[in-house]
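Protein Record: Sequence and Backbone Structure Tokens
======================================================
Scope: a single protein chain, as residues and as a discrete description of its fold.
Tokens: labelled as protein backbone structure tokens, with as many entries as the chain has residues.
Position: the record begins directly beneath this header, with no further notes in between.
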Amino acid sequence: MSHTEHEQPILRTTPTRMGKMLAITVGIMIVGAAIFFSMWDYWISTPPAVAQVKPVKTEGPAVATGKEIKTSLKFIESSDFITLAFNALPGEEGNNPEIQANVGDKIIFDVTNAGKTFHAFGVVTSPEDIESQEEVHAALPGTAIKDPNNPLKPGEGGQSTFVPQKAGTYYYICTVPGHREQGMEGKIIVEEAKPAGQAAAPTGTKVSFDLNFVESSDFRTLAFNALPGEEGNNPEIKVKSGDSVTIKVKNAGKTFHSFGVVTNPEDSITLVWNSAIKDPNNPLKPNEEGEVTFTAGAPGTYYYICTVPGHSLQGMKGSFIVE
């Protein structure tokens, strides 16, 4: 190679550039290590086994019998406040009345605080249920009237309902801590619903009843024949099993109505014996009339109602007794 020829240049980095590269490399390593070790438990863990989730078997709602059991209860106290009770003190007639019902019956509690202290109400499966809870939520759904944190004051009242789903012994109590132990506890004995009796053969007897749909002027109260408090309101009908029953109805109101005999007065689907006159989709218009004839079935307590949704709750229902 002659002295006049240029040699290829040898490229070298500068110390400053090398330092920056080393700093970046070390930084990446430190960040990666931090991420890795922060998830150490994840890296060394094994995937959990897939649990076999078994469906929880729950009891369906009881079949409503249509029977209503109305119970009035008053919280009362002895003069020294040591003894507490419902309706009457121990030894007096009516103390903590026992309630008899069947599965599917609707028990309606009308409760009043007739004492001078605070009280609350609920139905429990065991009288100790309330005491075992840090917070008071042991009363069965729908049965609580107030609670210890917001009780009934003297003179106040309330209403609740209880539809037992299975047979057994239940208890209605004052849910204010200590009041049950002082005597505010009553029993509810629930038996299995009785099977329906057998319908009798046709008796050949023919009976007929006339019913009119009527309404209050504000349309809030509905009834048959007469409004509540007036003579003839929702007359009770009694027939024999096997009788031929004719029902004649007239819509004497200003709204639409329809008719049927049911086992549950709050559920028009429980219609029996082809007893319908019209229906909510094709009701009786004002001043229209209708008629139906059917054979009374198994003995028991049934209800005649207006089958338009909500009308029976507003008062259009009466007892239909088959003997």
Summary: The first helix runs from residue 15 to 38. The chain has two domains: 68-191, 206-322.
